[in-house]
Protein 1
Amino acid sequence: MEDARRTLSDLNAEFAGWRIGRGGSGHWWAVRGNELVRTPHLAELRARLAELAEPLA
C-alpha cells in the first residue's frame, strides 16, 4: 500500500495538472481536462503522459 502511495505521489509531482489514480480493475488512469489516459501498465502511463507533455512542433 505504501508503494502505491509513493508511486502516486511521484506521478503527481512529475505530471502536474493531471489527476492520476489506479482503479479497482488494476488500470492506471490520468485525467486532464478532456484528456484521458488509461492503461494496465505503469510504464506505459508514464510514457504516454510524457508524450502529451512534449510541445507540439
Protein 2
Amino acid sequence: MTKTAISQHQLAQLAARFSEAVARQDWTHALEAADSLVAALPGHAGVVYNKALVLKELGRGPERIATLREALKAAPDHANARFELASALMDAGDLAEAAKLFEAYLSQVPDDTDARLNLGQCLLRLDRPGDALEPLRAAHAGAPGLATAAALASALRDTGHLAAAKALLADLPSTPEAAALRLKILTQGARGRIALSAARL
C-alpha cells in the first residue's frame, strides 16, 4: 500500500474523527475513518488493529480475521492482535488455530484469565478435555464464576473426574442460572452422565 500524503494536522483530525465515531458507537463512520488512517499510515499495526475492532462491531467476521492477520504481520509481537485473532477464529469455528494462538498469547501474557478460559473451551470443543484441565483450573482460580466453573466442570466430567465435577458444581450459588447450569453439565457429556437428585439442583 502506498502511503497517502498527509500533514500531521490532517492525521490528528482523522484520529479525532475516528475517536468521536467510536464514542458515539457509529461504527460505519468509524470504519471510514479507520480506512483513511490505514491509508495514511500503512503497516501501522495499532491502526490496523483498531480497524479490526470496528469490523468486529459491524459483525464482519472474515474481514476482521484478515485485518488482524495484517496487524500481526506488521507487528508479530502484538499481543492484543493475537488475542483478538484467536477470539475471531474461535467465533468462526476454527478451533485448532484459535487454540494455538491462545497458547501463543498466553506465553506473552500468562495471567490472562479470559485467554485461559477461551483456550480451555477450544480444547473442550476439540474433544481434548484432558488438555483443557490445566488452563481451565487456572482460569477458575483466577476468576471464579459461572463461566469458569461450567467449563472446568465439563472438563472434569469428560475426563472421568465425576466427584470433582459434582463438588465444583455444588459450590455454585443457589440461583436459577446456576441450577440450569448444574442440570446441563450433569446430564450431558460424551463420557457418561451423573445421576441426579433434586437436592443437587
Protein 3
Amino acid sequence: MGYSERLRLEVQHAFFDEAVPPLEMRPSDPRGFDAARLLLRQRGRFVHVLQDDAVEDQPSEIALTLLATAHDLFAVTKGAVWGAVVHLTAGLDQEALAFDEAGPAQPTDTAGRFLPVLATLDIALPSEGRRDLLLRCDAVAAHWAYHLIGAGQIDALEVVDSAGAVAFEDLGEQDLPNGQAARVIRSIQALAARARPPERFALQKAGPFGPETLVPVLPAAAIDFKPIPDTGAPPRLQSDIFVTLW
C-alpha cells in the first residue's frame, strides 16, 4: 500500500522572514479526511497532504484550518483579527494566496480553544497529480515613535537612518502618564514588523563641529502597537519606544 502527494502547501509569514512561523494546519473535517484515506504531514513551512493510492475516488477539494500556536501572531499578521476567522478559497488557476486579500473576517467564539483559529481554506485539487500552493502572510506596519526622556535638555535632537531610507518628524514634547515630559520623534513611514528588524537608527544632536551621536543604535520597535488618533485619516498603528538620556 502506497501514498501519493496530492497537495504541497507552503506557508510564509513576512514577520518571521525565513524562519518557521508558529502556525499549525489541520483538516477542517477530520472524520471526512480519514474516510477519504488522506494524511496530513507538516514539516517546517510545508504542509503535505497525501492519499492512499488504493482509493479510486479522488477528492476535488479539501478543507483545512490554520491555527495560531502563539497568540502574538494576531498582532503581527496583516488582516488578522482576534476572535474572527478569515476564509480563503484557492481555485485551480491560483498559484498563491495572500492572507490579507481574503474577504471580511467572520466572528467566532475562541473561548476554551487551546489553539485559536486564524483562517479556514478551501483548496481545489487536480484530478491527478500534485498541486503546489503558496499561502503568503504579510506583516502589519507601524510608525516607530521614540519617546526621549532625560533630566537634561531633550530638544535639538534628531533620529537618523544611516541608510537614508526612513525619515522622522519631531512631534514636540508630550506628557507621559506619570506627568514626565518626553520629546517624541516618529518615523514618517510605517515600517513592516519583523521578528529581527533590519532597521538601524541613531540619535544625534547638533554640536559646534557638526552632529554629535548620542546613541549609535537605538532600540527597535516592539509589537505592542496602538492606533494613532488621526481624525478622518486612514487607520495607522504606532509602536512606542522609550529612551532615557543621562
